[in-house]
From TrEMBL:
<feature type="domain" description="Signal transduction histidine kinase internal region">
    <location>
        <begin position="63"/>
        <end position="141"/>
    </location>
</feature>
<dbReference type="InterPro" id="IPR036890">
    <property type="entry name" value="HATPase_C_sf"/>
</dbReference>
<dbReference type="GO" id="GO:0016020">
    <property type="term" value="C:membrane"/>
</dbReference>
<dbReference type="InterPro" id="IPR010559">
    <property type="entry name" value="Sig_transdc_His_kin_internal"/>
</dbReference>
<dbReference type="InterPro" id="IPR050640">
    <property type="entry name" value="Bact_2-comp_sensor_kinase"/>
</dbReference>
<protein>
    <submittedName>
        <fullName>Putative two-component system sensor protein</fullName>
    </submittedName>
</protein>
<dbReference type="GO" id="GO:0000155">
    <property type="term" value="F:phosphorelay sensor kinase activity"/>
</dbReference>
<dbReference type="Pfam" id="PF06580">
    <property type="entry name" value="His_kinase"/>
</dbReference>
Amino acid sequence: MFPGAFIFIGLVEQEEVPLLIGLGIGLLIQLVIIPVSNLAFEKYFGMVGQIKNLSHKVEVGSANLSFLKSQINPHFLFNALNTLYGTALMEKAERTADGIQKLGDMMRFMIHENQQDKIPLKREIEYVNNYLDLQMLRFENEENLSVDFKLPSTECEGHIAPMLLIPFVENAFKHGISTKNKSWIKINLRCMKGTVHLDLVNSIHPKKITDDPKDESGIGLDNVRKRLEHYYPGKYSLSTISNESEYFVHFSLQLD
């Protein structure tokens, strides 16, 4: 054989080596890596499915537990209030019985009406009225406190987002009452042609050094402003003014 033939065969063999390596890698990918990868992905997605299923069961279980709690707790509390109400009547403590009845009505409002987007305006005013009656029962012996309120619920029609009026009243009792100094709260609610108007004035007392700045009146009404912007954009007016001795609130709302 001629020497050139060996050179030609060597060249052919050298050219076949990369080809054989490429074929080997291709077979390795097709026969080993791809099946293993598919198996790994199948196990991964299977585990994801199991996790989702378990999460769903946990969520359902939590929801059922929360629902059960929501049914048990109010049921127990209302039964307890009814028992106290009956006991108060038997003991001829009519004012105590009346207070228990109003508290029960407020609890029903918080559990039922408070979960709705809109409620009858009369129910909102009834809640405020019950709150005021309980506060008057609480502070009946305070000689330094004067509370004057007018809530004509009979002529107020329409619907309103729940818990929009009560924060103003709560704010007045929270910041306007002092057991040592003369205090006053004046509330006037009016309903006219699809609108509701609330004017409120309460006394102001010097803050203690230990008072939390978060308890200031303006901060307490921020949530009300946000809810008004959400439910009644462009349909309300809210202004507050204060001086050294009094805090004024004027609130007007155009009902739907």
